[in-house]
Amino acid sequence: MVPVLSEPATRVSPRGTRGVRIPSRGPVPFVFNLGGKLLIRMYRRIGGLWSRPGFRMVLVTTRGATTGRTLTVPLGGFSDGEDAWLVVGSLAGAARHPAWLFNMAKHPEAVWLEVGRERFKVRPETLEGSARADAFARIATIAPPYAAYQAKTDREIPIVRLTQEEGREHGTGRLEGDRHGDSS
Length: 184
Known about the structure:
The protein has a domain at 49-167: Electron Transport, Fmn-binding Protein, Chain A (Pnp Oxidase, Chain A, Roll). The chain is an alpha+beta fold. The longest helix is centred in the first third of the chain and has 20 residues, at 27-46. Strands 2-3-4-7-6-5 form a six-stranded antiparallel β-barrel. Strand 2 and strand 3 form a beta hairpin. It contains four helices and nine strands, in the order αββββαββααβββ.
């Protein structure tokens, strides 16, 4: 039996009123999506791309909130102990949240993380209060651009802890129906 939570573990805070403009149509999103597809392909072929202590590229796979399609996005991941990672919904300081955050909130049971050649199911949890403040301070020390992103928008940039689920299958292959994109 699956326990029913009274509140979702992944919460989406209100959209901001100012921030970096991220175009949703035209050549810019096309180029970003193409670049994202290439990054994902290279990541999976090589078993990871760039990293430095406490910070590396990870792949997060979610089920689309409206489409139900499996979508994968490359993100900066911050180690948070032995079985957890933090990802930041900065969208470079845009007023809106990234689509993957809405996907996690709608389908928290369908979130996978790839770190190097390891792939595993994770449980997402949006950090709040002092836990978020402490994590953000640590992240901004490791990767200063994240502090600049927060300064560009008036929305609270979410930080999501992805905790590996125990007893879940691990794998290294491609997820069925996997597509790249930041759309839901």
